[in-house]
């Protein structure tokens, strides 16, 4: 019920841009497409935005980066002092890429290049809305858990679980006696999948209990009873332990993404760095002591991503058995691919993309058939990623690429659900790089403004709205308007009017077309309006102009 209420709740969104046309257009776009999710406000100056922010306390701010007197980054810093959990999405142009990249590392949630169009902007805002919903749901569960502490299982069960984890209870007879009076005992023969968490910081016992309860509820919400029957939880040796009753063999892999989400929310909402380790498979109660020790050492030995990591158990077995879910033969194959990587680097340095794609495909086929949590596959992906990043930086094409494909995934393989998705992304990225290379070689790239002017001059008699021009050019109309005015020092609308009236003047002087015919050729369906604009420009009417010529 609470989750449904959270889904139906409207969030608040504030749009900030120093150009009224852009700010108003964004507000209209969000109200039209996302009105069921957000209540939208907008303004044109950071100072006014701060006043609105303090009064409305929006969940999300969509802002331009470069604004007079105060940048979007400076504004966002002030907003976070008022509401630390506010989300900020920056919209930027090519020339602001480095500035926004710096902002992302400091205090922004995401950025979108204005060249990416309305669909990409809307997708980014929807993603922010989903993140806000999850955060609110987590906090509701967290606050609710504080009221449930008094109704938790008796301390006796906590002690019983501790004794089982430390190996004090080993016989079936002792186990049966301990479990006999419990409302939710451990299963005698059922499988238990261990999930262990560890905090860098020391926290109070009450906070420990709240985290235990909250994570349990988040797991229940993520998976139905067919996947997780019941969850037992306990604090043991300063670690958080969840024992999941399950008959699902693949639950370990499925939990990975869920635990990543939980970890991120704990860091954002509680400002705590929490590591997790997930058992590879379920065990019987008698094996819990051994399994816990294995996982504890696994956590100490595999701290990925500094102090904030989610680790999958990596069982070391005999050579004839599987290693991390893969055979020794797979290990041999991956090792052999390192030579292919070296060959790829040489081919890429020569910019021979045809040969590059052929060799790359051999590697990607191995990658896309790997197990989800294969460490070999992860190493392979990063090897490809580092090679491509080196080329992108060397050729200085990051901004051009960012306008055509998201680059965040290149540094975050966790963004993909399968290695096949990761392989397809690499294919797509390389294809875009190849296209950029071909464009540069052929020297056929024309500036955006030149394209706009060429199109306008050849279609003066037709509809020339920003929307139409944007569709033809393949760019966001708001972005086109801003870029055009920045370099031409005139708006697209004024440029169109200027060219139409100048064409009208030439036709009045050099043709025998009637006034209404001249108006139609110049794109004016209403002759009276054409006459009015003509007089505003030249101080005389078209009739007077033609009479003076005679």
UniProtKB/TrEMBL annotation:
Residues annotated with 4-aspartylphosphate modification: 64
UniProt entry keywords in alphabetical sequence: DNA-binding, Phosphoprotein, Transcription, Transcription regulation
Gene3D superfamilies documented for this protein: 3.40.50.2300, Homeodomain-like
HTH araC/xylS-type domain mapped to chain residues: 450-548
InterPro entries the record matches: CheY-like_superfamily, Homeodomain-like_sf, HTH_AraC, HTH_AraC-typ_CS, Sig_transdc_resp-reg_receiver, Tscrpt_reg_AraC-type_HTH
PROSITE patterns for this protein: HTH_ARAC_FAMILY_1 (PS00041), HTH_ARAC_FAMILY_2 (PS01124), RESPONSE_REGULATORY (PS50110)
Highest taxon of source: Bacteria
Boundaries of every Response regulatory domain copy: 12-129
Described function: May play the central regulatory role in sporulation. It may be an element of the effector pathway responsible for the activation of sporulation genes in response to nutritional stress. Spo0A may act in concert with spo0H (a sigma factor) to control the expression of some genes that are critical to the sporulation process.
Protein name per Swiss-Prot or TrEMBL: Stage 0 sporulation protein A homolog
